């Protein structure tokens, strides 16, 4: 039933033609879109700042990885000392571990602080760039009549923040994982070559399964959740803006029905989202717990 407010129902349904034009998650086209948005910051007028901050974060990650290896070694020393009942060796390892922790904690804190500073600076620059384009040539007026672009206010205020924060977060996780892989593989390689190979295949297989079995659906569901939430928020905003006419014509029932419809769409999508997330959590938990048993199974043949 139409409401009294003159509203646009953004995002409740999308024409098939628009769906076809949207790049699929984890596709080459999606990566090209990502690069087209991210590249100007890294190659534009702020490129020195961007690369300097990234270099600083990489140095901090190297130090963090080195400290993690040192802590791992000292933990092994303490375990070996306890097993051999060597008191002097144990307390020496404890002191070394405490010294390492005293150095590691400030490094960790400064690393996360600089990561957030970097994301904030990138967001400020990218938001300014989008606002310039949005206001230039009355683009804001043209966007209002384009059904492919929904909720531009949310895109600028929230999606840019998510884009910059998540991009840096995942980039650093990827680089940090490679650093830790190289650092700890040397330790594992000295124990068993087969162990390193099996764990590498195991990790690669789990990553591929997580990306394509759970990643693609979750990306789609999160995309639609943002749209549904924006539509729900927009319907409430329209109610406030048209409060006088709604009150005059006593249109509360129609407005409530319209708002309930938007809210139910958001709730239904979120229900599908948490179900898929639950499946991912089960997979991740099983995958991670098996790593506690798998190395011992591989090493058992050479010991028993």
Structure summary:
By secondary structure, the protein is mainly alpha-helical. Helices cover 85% and strands 0% of the residues. It is built from ten helices and no strands.
Describe what you observe in this structure.
- This protein has 304 residues and is an all-alpha fold.
- The chain folds into two domains: 1-34 and 192-304, no CATH class; 44-182.
- Helix content is 85%, strand content 0%.
- The chain has ten helices and no strands.
- Helix 2 packs across helix 3 (47-83) and helix 4 (87-135) packs antiparallel against helix 6.
- The longest helix has 49 residues, at 87-135.
- The termini are far apart.
- Mean pLDDT is 82; it is low at 6-21.
Topology:
Elements: H1 16-21, H2 28-43, H3 47-83, H4 87-135, H5 139-144, H6 152-191, H7 193-241, H8 243-249, H9 252-290, H10 294-303
Helix pairs in contact: 2-3, 3-4, 3-6, 4-6, 6-7, 7-9, 7-10
**Number of distinct beta strands:** 0
In total, the number of domains comes to 2
Number of contiguous helices: 10
Q: How far is the N terminus from the C terminus?
A: 74 Å
pLDDT averaged residue by residue: 82
> Secondary-structure element sequence?
HHHHHHHHHH
- Portion of residues in beta strands equals under 5%
| Largest beta-sheet details | none
Q: Percent range for helical residues?
A: over 70%
For the CA atoms, what is the radius of gyration?
A: 26 Å
The coarse overall form would be elongated
Keywords:
2 domains; about 85% helix
């Amino acid at each position: 039933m139409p409401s009294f407010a003159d509203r646009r129902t953004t995002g409740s349904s999308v024409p098939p033609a628009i769906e076809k034009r949207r790049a699929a998650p984890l596709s080459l086209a999606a990566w090209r879109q990502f690069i087209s948005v991210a590249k100007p910051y890294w190659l534009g007028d702020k490129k020195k700042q961007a690369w300097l901050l990234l270099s600083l974060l990489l140095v901090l990650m190297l130090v963090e990885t080195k400290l993690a290896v040192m802590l791992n070694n000292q933990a092994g020393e303490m375990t070996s000392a306890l097993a051999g009942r060597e008191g002097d060796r144990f307390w020496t390892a404890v002191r070394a571990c405490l010294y390492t922790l005293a150095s590691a904690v400030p490094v960790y804190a400064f690393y996360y602080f600089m990561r957030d500073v970097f994301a904030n600076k990138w967001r400020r620059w990218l938001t300014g760039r989008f606002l310039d384009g949005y206001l230039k040539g009355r683009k804001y007026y043209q966007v209002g009549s384009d059904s492919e672009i929904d909720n531009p206010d949310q895109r600028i205020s929230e999606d840019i923040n998510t884009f910059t924060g998540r991009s840096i977060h995942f980039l650093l996780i990827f680089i940090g994982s490679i650093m830790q892989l190289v650092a700890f593989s040397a330790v594992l390689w000295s124990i068993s070559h087969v162990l390193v190979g099996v764990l590498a295949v195991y990790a690669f297989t789990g990553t591929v399964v997580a990306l394509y079995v759970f990643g693609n659906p979750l990306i789609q569901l999160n995309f639609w959740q943002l749209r549904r939430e924006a539509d729900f928020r927009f319907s409430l905003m329209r109610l406030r803006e048209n409060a006088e006419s709604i009150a005059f014509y006593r249109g509360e029932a129609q407005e409530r029905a319209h708002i309930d419809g938007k809210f139910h769409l958001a709730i239904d999508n979120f229900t599908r989202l948490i179900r898929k997330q639950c499946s991912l959590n089960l997979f991740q938990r099983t995958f991670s717990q098996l790593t506690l048993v798998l190395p011992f199974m591989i090493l058992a043949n050479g010991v028993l």
